[in-house]
Amino acid sequence: MSEAAYVICALTDIPSRKAAGFQLAVVGENGAPEPFPIVVVRWGHQVFGYRNRCPHHGSNLDWEREQFLDPNGLRLMCGKHGALFEIGTGRCSDGPCKGDSLTPVALAVIDGDICVTGVTLVEEDEDLPPEENRA
Ligand code: FES
Predict the structure, then answer these.
(1) Residue whose CA is closest, atom 1 of ligand 1?
(2) Which of 3, 107, 113, 116 has the fewest beta carbons closer than 10 A?
(3) For residue 32, what are the contacts with CB-CB under 8 A and spacing of at least 6?
(4) Quick one: which atom of ligand 1 is closest to the CA of 57?
């Protein structure tokens, strides 16, 4: 498979120590698009990506929309039952799914842009400005 990198936003679009959600879609087994929601945390020059799906009951983490971090801003939090996840590893350190982990999403920062790698995304040409649509 090709090593495509899909630009999702500029690194500076996410303030340091903040998280943002993205509603992406991957090409599924039969070629149909499948939803691929992810959360990206930026920590200085580092970025961490995970599927936006809690290992406890499979809900999206941002029960309150775009609210991904705990009140201290130091861990990812699932708003549904309060599971807390280490930002660097995705491991649940407290809560109902303690010991489980978020599913990592491979990211790379290329020329100042955050890119998703390792999956084949459905590119929605019509919905994105051209500069956000580079492969
Ligand atoms: S669904 Fe996330 S803690 Fe229960």
Answers:
(1) 57
(2) 3
(3) none
(4) 1
